[in-house]
Amino acid sequence: MRLQILKYVLVFLFMILFSTIFWMQIIKGQEYFRQSESNRIRLVPEDASRGIIYDRNNKPLVENQLAFDVVAVPQEIKSENKDVLFAKLSKFLDIKASILAEAFERNFVSSFSPVMLAENIPRNTAFLIEQEMSELLGVFVKTSSIRNYLHGKSSAHLVGYVGKMREYEYPELKKYGYRMSDLIGRSGLEKEYDQILRGKPGGMQLEVDSEGSIIKVISYRPPVRGSDVHTTIDLDLQKLVSELMADTRGAVCVLDPDTGEVLALYSGPAYDPNIFINKNKYEEMGKVFKNPDAPLLNRALNTYAPGSIFKIVTAYAGLWEKIIDSNTCFVCEGNFQLGNSSRSCWLKQGHGSVNLQEALETSCNVFFWEVGLKIGQRLLSVHAREFGLGKQTGIDLPSEPSGVVPNANWKNANIHEKWYAGDTANFAIGQGFLLVSPIQAARMVSMVANGGYEILPRIVKKENKTINSKKKILSEEILAIIRKGLNDVVNASSGTGRNAYVPGVAIFAKTGTAQSGKGLDPHAWFVGSAEFKKQKISFSIFQEFGGHGGEGPANIAKQIILYFKAKEGEE
Questions:
Q1: What is the pLDDT of residues 494-549, one digit of tens each?
Q2: Residue 25 lies in a domain
Q3: Considering the entire predicted model, what is its pTM?
Q4: Which of 82, 173, 338, 446 is most buried, judged by most C-beta within 10 A?
Q5: 529 and 385, same structural domain?
Q6: CA 312 to each of CA 208, 228, 345, 483, 510: distance values in angstroms, whole numbers, following the listed order
Q7: Whether residue 563 is found in the same domain as residue 496
Q8: What is the number of helices (H) and of strands (E) in the chain?
Q9: Which residues, listed in sequence order, are joined to residue 343 by a DSSP beta bridge?
Q10: Cα(567)–Cα(223) distance, rounded to whole angstroms?
């Protein structure tokens, strides 16, 4: 009886063994084989250097700099010696041994993969560690490349900076070949052209045994450096603009109105992008983030009330809709009655009887209130969009807002109020709900300069492509009438932009003073164009709380014009 029971037990055990073997080798065989192969083969990645960013004359805006990192290879460090090793290493790095131990645990991937302990250490420190390798078994100095932003604040918002990927970003970027340890563009051109600049990582394929020891190198693929980016920026002009703004809150955009090439783009106050690369500058980073002047904000793309520079659009709309012609006059006595309220022109004694050319020259509010009310909010909105307002310019920088071109429907949907005649009057002189960015203003005045063609601002050169779309949007005949008034803004003795006058250069411009809030100085604008023998430029200069556009911004415009005049003289 006992033998019979033993027989049944043995049969049952063999059935279990057979079932287990069948499950493991037949049912799950392929899966386990793949797992064993992945356990046998390890990949050790090697980062690629990022591409260089150049200006239009092949001067580098950003380049790569040799850096030294300290790494540890776990399989070469005995666990009982780890504390002693980190204690010795801490003396060279001036980093507590406990912090090095934490970095080792945090960055550990596998026994053969190098673990990062300290990044971008001083060159002298790297040499000292190299000399003491016999006492620091398992520790190595590895070279890498880091970004060096050569011109600091002057091109900060243009070039941007790189930073480590955040954990929440990885799932989305993983499908594009990014790794969790990768640096990615955080702003500016670094972000916009990240996939071009980053290159392709390489690495080694290693065969390891069950304990993680390396048996042999199966294959090696060298990393491919990222592609270089050539911009349309004039570095010397960019640096000049930076000096002229001198940390003023505002922005400067300089374009070629015929091609759309961005010659300079500056936002201030700026920051030094190198602080985001140097891990020893956490204090400076904190100051940047906490600065109430918001140096990280790209004011060249941010939107503001445009003030009187919008009178260009109102003038065009009035002429196109045949509400006025070049001879139409309105009398300005210094105030304007609208319903039960009275509005004052900026010149208290008034401008007298003025036609369009004189109204542009002196920036008479009363003239444009009269015209705007006759045009109406709907047509003002239509013509504003023809000038590219209320929509992105498409400039190759991230996070560009569209701005706001209001009308009755917009106000009803967003403010939940009806549209009043006072809203139209505000709209006509660039106040109220209207919001425009400096780059949009530069595009607007570029269309006046190039005869009414759509302008597509670009910073990075496009091979064998014309940047200007060559799409005719506006009437050249009407623009010619407007340019006469804008010419007088700078060249006539009573012009509001007289400070920008440069003898021998054809210049037209428009000043703007926009309300910024109760108790605060108004924003100041100055937009225009200058034509030289071989080149034409358009510009938009904006200063937050800068007062009158004919003062600070006009003086900056003059220096930009003198730069180009001197440049042609040198040629």
A1: 899 999 999 999 999 999 999 887 678 899 999 999 999 989 999 999 999 988 99
A2: no
A3: 0.85
A4: 446
A5: yes
A6: 72, 40, 17, 9, 8
A7: yes
A8: 20, 19
A9: 336
A10: 42
